[in-house]
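Q: Convert this sequence to structure tokens.
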Amino acid sequence: MTWRRIATELGRVHAVTLTGTAGTAVHTTPLNTTQAGILRDCQVPTPATVTALDPT
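A:
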């Protein structure tokens, strides 16, 4: 896999901030098979689904 393809695939992973009446949560978008494979092959741990919680 080329570096360009790796950058494109991993560039599609985002941290999304969700805000509601209960507070705020930062959620990482789910990894597709290709993205998970890249991280596995590079021995990089997958990001947590929820990276921050701030209850109101």
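Residues 3-55 form one domain.
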